[in-house]
Amino acid sequence: MQLLGVIPKENSMNPDDKARLKNLRRRVKRARHFPENTCSASRHLHMIAERLCTDGPMLIDEPEHCAETMLAVLESLWKARTELERLKTPNANLSTIEWRG
């Protein structure tokens, strides 16, 4: 079974792609602050990505688990982005309050 979109192994990548992937892996590791900003799904997704970068059989061996993890991380990401956007928006209720001093 051929999978589309599977990250090629580092040794089959051109030098630019290899450098970009190495940089991204470094940035992900630096951004991870266990347990404050991780959940089991995000840690599992990290493991899937690392396996795809090295030996790659995870999507073939456990596709349902991988899909479940990716969907859970997407849900969390999109909820977090929605909450951030909500926090950036001025509170309409506060703008209508009359302050008396």
What brief labels describe this structure?
101 residues, mainly alpha, 5 helices, elongated
Description:
By secondary structure, this protein is mainly alpha-helical. The chain has one domain. 65% of the residues lie in helices and 0% in strands. It is built from five helices and no strands. It has helices at 15-31, 40-54, 58-61, 63-88, 92-95. The longest helix has 26 residues, at 63-88. The chain is elongated. It starts with 14 loop residues before the first helix and ends in a 6-residue tail after the last helix.
What would the average pLDDT be, to the nearest integer?
A: 78
Structural class computed from helices and strand pairing: mainly alpha
According to DSSP, the number of beta strands is 0
So how many helices? 5
User: Could you say how many structural domains there are in total?
Assistant: 1
Q: Any low-confidence stretches, pLDDT <50, length ≥5?
A: 1-5
Fraction of residues in H or I helices: 55-70%
How are helices and strands ordered from N to C?
HHHHH
Radius of gyration: 20 Å
Shape, please? elongated
Please give the largest β-sheet.
none
C-alpha termini separation? 72 Å
Strand proportion, as a percent range, falls in under 5%
Strand and helix map with partners:
Layout: H1 15-31, H2 40-54, H3 58-61, H4 63-88, H5 92-95
Helix pairs in contact: 2-4
In short:
This protein is mostly helical. It contains 5 helices and no strands. The radius of gyration is 20 Å and the shape is elongated.
